[in-house]
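May I ask you for just one protein sequence along with its backbone structure tokens in two labelled lines?

_____
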Amino acid sequence: LHQFTDRLPLVDAHWPTDLSAKSTESSLQSGVLYGVLHEMKGMISAFKEKYPNLLVLLTGGDAPSLARHIATPSQIVPDLVLNGLAAVATNGIVRA
């Protein structure tokens, strides 16, 4: 948001202690982090209706932080891409 909006400050991605924001910084944190979280929960819910035994795989550096806020059983693999690249480098390229 900061990059494309001149007057918004650059803030760290820390979970706010209160959902009701009281400053620009906490408003940005609350809006972005809870917005992403609820979007994820909505998608998980929609997929669980179709696939009741769904296992959610959370990847990326923020996976552990997000997993604490999602009640669905999940597997956390923060370095999935790096692990995959390491496997390819170690074992050669896999061809279908």
Observations:
- Helices lie at 24-50, 63-67, 80-91.
- The first strand starts at residue 56 and ends at 59.
